[in-house]
Structures are given as structure tokens and as C-alpha cells.
């Protein structure tokens, strides 16, 4: 049984209609990163930040898992390999496709976080700056999203799994955002074979042992079929 660590990024959800941040029509074209994806931006204008993530939460709820999400869930469910998905995405499409062994390293839209006490709870569809934490009562509610300048979640667990893997696969990532962009180097130094599945070559594509490029809904199911037939 091979241990497979799979990193997924915005490209796997793009075909479900969830806009990416870095495409020419992406979300960063409408908002400055500093305004909606940093602790400082939230401190300056929490209403704007909540409105931004309320819109993203609604878009994610309206989207459906696509063939790539379902293929990864099928790979895990088959039981022939030990699969861990580490996703940079904050949507829940992997879960809704059936994946269970999953780490949201950048948090998730469907959770709320108290900036005062650290309590987490299911997020309502609409959040605002006046909502109080159900644990401590302080009006310090924020999205449970890892912003720029903050440490992604469960990094030690991810690095341990990556270095013990038999295969590392990167799907739908730009290769721009660290620490995830460095996973291929970590795997390479640990002697772990690496594969990129992406719409087009990422910034780090030359570091991968192999790469296949095309829409996620095509290249991911094809790769899963090969893994299950081997």
C-alpha cells in the first residue's frame, strides 16, 4: 500500500465555477490582498473582509464537486493506497465528493474563529463584525481562514506525512504561495517521487519528476484510473 500525499490548489475547484485568485479575471483583480487577506486589513475594515468572505462562502455553497474531486475520493475509498489530501482551498468540495483524510492548511469558509480566545464553531452563511463568540462572548468573530502573514494549519503533521510518503502529487497549484510551493523540494530532498497535475506548468514544474498538463477534470481521473489499475 503506497502512501500518497496530494496537495490541491485553486485549479482543482476552478472547473466547479469557483474563481481562482491569480487568473486574469481572478479575485485579486477586484481586491488588494492587503485589504481582504491580512490581519491588518481585517483590523482596518472588518466589514469589508466579512463581506468578501460571505460572497466566497455563498459561491462555494452553490458549487458542486467535479470529476477531479470525485476521482480523488474514489482513490481513497478504494483502499489500495493510503491517501492524504492537503488542500490550500477553503471550499468544502473535497468533503462533499467523499474525501475523508483531509487537511485544510489554509482554513475553511464553513468555520468561524474567535480572534480573542481561539474558539472555533460552524460559520453562519453571513458573518459580520458585531457577532459575538459563543465561548467568550467577545465581538471578535473572524473567518477561520489563514491570511498572509499567518502560519498555515497542521504544518508539522503535513511535513511528517510528506517526508514519509511514497509519492507526492501536486494538483492545480500555481507554485507561488509558500510554504505549499516548497513541498516539492521537501519531497525531493526526502527521496519521494513527485508528480505535477496542472492546467499548465507551475512555477516549480521543473522540480517534479513527472508532469501532466490539462484540465483537472481530465488529467486527475486519468491518473487515478492508472493508480487503481496498477
Write the layout of secondary structure elements.
Blueprint: E1 3-8, H1 10-14, H2 33-36, H3 39-44, H4 46-62, H5 67-78, E2 82-87, H6 93-97, E3 102-104, E4 107-114, E5 120-122, E6 141-145, H7 155-163, E7 167-171, H8 183-189, E8 194-198, E9 210-213, H9 216-229
Enzyme class: transferase
GO molecular function: histone deacetylase activity, NAD-dependent; NAD+ binding; protein-malonyllysine demalonylase activity; protein-succinyllysine desuccinylase activity; zinc ion binding
Pfam family, one: SIR2
Helical residue percent band: 25-40%
What would CATH call the class of the largest domain?
Alpha Beta
Our count of domains comes out at 2
Shape assignment: globular
Rg from alpha-carbon coordinates = 18 Å
Number of strands: 9
Quaternary state, please? single chain
Largest sheet: 6 strands, parallel
Mean pLDDT: 93
CATH architecture of the largest domain: 3-Layer(aba) Sandwich
C-alpha end-to-end distance: 11 Å
Strand order of the largest sheet: 3-2-1-7-8-9
Number of helices: 9
SSE string: EHHHHHEHEEEEHEHEEH
Class by SSE composition: alpha/beta
The low-confidence parts are none
Keywords: Cytoplasm, Metal-binding, NAD, Transferase, Zinc
Catalytic activity: N(6)-acetyl-L-lysyl-[protein] + NAD(+) + H2O = 2''-O-acetyl-ADP-D-ribose + nicotinamide + L-lysyl-[protein]; N(6)-succinyl-L-lysyl-[protein] + NAD(+) + H2O = 2''-O-succinyl-ADP-D-ribose + nicotinamide + L-lysyl-[protein]
Binding site for substrate: 53, 56
Cofactor: Zn(2+)
